[in-house]
């Protein structure tokens, strides 16, 4: 129960900040600035950060063990299930903003060449488990996009528990050939200023391009 509490605490707070991010985008508010400002409070606030969805073995899965177990005791864990719904919706939110960015360039998702940057579920690790990047690729492919990926930790992506992509890593060169580059995982190896400079369009899900002022960047 202690381990579940710790995972549920993170799951619920990440869902909260993801929901506030979606609202802030509609309101024209920078959620990352809001989080930075709230973090100046010396007590009572711990920052959580939005992203393209949850990954890893613990947070996306473990809370639902308790949700399932609770039904044996005629109890509905509404917080857990609502948080799961919010977080599971984030890959589709990313795809929506890819479509929005392409539309601004008078292009459709169908037929567009899209490069995904970062496949691991969080930065600087070699773990694909439950990574939202996998879902985003599948959603884009369903819309007819030609999707490639780059991740320094994965030369190949084959078949897993919920995916069968069979893709080979694309090298970071000739970035202008892609209609859109999506930053899914903000690995430290990436030169984001260079990427933005060469790209036609960048959709940034992690605020990796913070401080880079460019009309080519869509933050979601």
Describe it for me?
The protein is α/β, with parallel strands linked by helices. The chain has two domains: 2-88, N-(1-d-carboxylethyl)-l-norvaline Dehydrogenase, domain 2, CATH 1.10.1040.10; 90-219, Rossmann fold, CATH 3.40.50.720. The chain is built from seven helices and seven strands; from the N terminus they run H-H-H-H-H-E-H-E-E-E-E-H-E-E. It has helices spanning 2-27, 31-38, 62-70, 78-88, 90-104, 132-142, 192-198, and strands at residues 113-117, 146-150, 156-159, 164-168, 180-183, 202-204, 217-219. The strands form two sheets. Strands 2-1-5-6-7 form a five-stranded parallel beta sheet, with helices on one face. A two-stranded antiparallel ribbon has the order 3-4. Strand 5, helix 7 and strand 6 form a beta-alpha-beta unit. Helix 1 crosses helix 3 and helix 1 (2-27) packs across helix 4. It is globular. The two termini are 34 Å apart. The mean pLDDT is 95.
């Amino acid at each position: 129960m202690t381990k579940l509490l710790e995972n549920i605490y993170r799951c619920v707070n990440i869902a909260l900040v993801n929901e506030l991010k979606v609202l802030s985008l509609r309101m024209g508010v920078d959620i990352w600035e809001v989080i930075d400002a709230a973090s100046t409070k010396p007590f009572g606030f711990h920052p959580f950060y939005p992203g393209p969805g949850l990954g890893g073995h613990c947070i996306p899965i473990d809370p639902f063990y308790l949700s399932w177990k609770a039904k044996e005791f005629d109890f509905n864990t509404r917080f857990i299930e609502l948080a799961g719904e919010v977080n599971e919706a984030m890959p589709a939110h990313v795809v929506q903003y890819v479509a929005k960015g392409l539309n601004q360039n008078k292009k459709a998702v169908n037929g567009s060449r899209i490069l995904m940057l970062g496949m691991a579920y969080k930065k600087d690790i070699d773990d694909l488990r439950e990574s939202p990047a996998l879902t985003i690729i599948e959603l884009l492919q369903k819309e007819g996009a030609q999707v490639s990926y780059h991740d320094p930790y994965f030369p190949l992506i084959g078949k897993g528990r919920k995916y069968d992509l069979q893709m080979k890593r694309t090298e970071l060169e000739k970035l202008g050939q892609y209609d859109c580059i999506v930053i899914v995982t903000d690995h430290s190896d990436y030169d984001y200023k260079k990427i933005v400079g060469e790209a036609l369009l960048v959709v940034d899900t992690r605020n990796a391009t913070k401080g880079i002022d460019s009309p080519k960047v869509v933050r979601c």
